[in-house]
């Protein structure tokens, strides 16, 4: 009597190989054609604001207009995890390249409605609508607040 435990069935291996091949084919097609790749949007910037983000000792994150040094918003611990997560991911990129926190990020609303966040130090840009409406809207609210503050000055 043979023990077949630990042996992967041939059909499962073939199926996994097909899924991998199909995935690689779609990725290659997207790279070759540029389909749905997050590059420059096909429009001009409508408005943008440079922002600076500081971690506070209480765990909150303060978001400032980098030009005016005016506080735009404070994200409390446990609130709006997407803003905190996105900013920390970009900060990690800076750490790996030995770049400090001083260079601003640029939050831009494009004429076609896309919203992007660009790290001015590394050149990394993320298009926020890719993360869902709620997450995009969290950054859009920062842009609206900063724009209103600038109009009052």
What is the rounded Rg?
A: 21 Å
Structural class: alpha+beta
Terminus-to-terminus distance: 85 Å
Taking the sheet with the most strands, its summary is: 6 strands, antiparallel
What number of structural domains do the residues give? 2
* Oligomer description: single chain
Number of helical runs? 3
Within the largest sheet, what's the order of strands? 3-2-1-4-5-6
- Shape label: elongated
InterPro entries: PuhC
Keywords: Membrane, Transmembrane, Transmembrane helix
Transmembrane segments: 12-32
Protein name: Photosynthetic complex assembly protein
How is this structure best described in words?
- With 153 residues, this protein is α+β, with helices and mostly antiparallel strands.
- The chain folds into 2 domains: 6-37; 45-152, no CATH class.
- It is 39% helix and 23% strand.
- It has a 6-stranded antiparallel β-sheet with strand order 3-2-1-4-5-6, covered by helices on one side.
- A hairpin with a 5-residue loop joins strand 5 (115-119) and strand 6 (125-127).
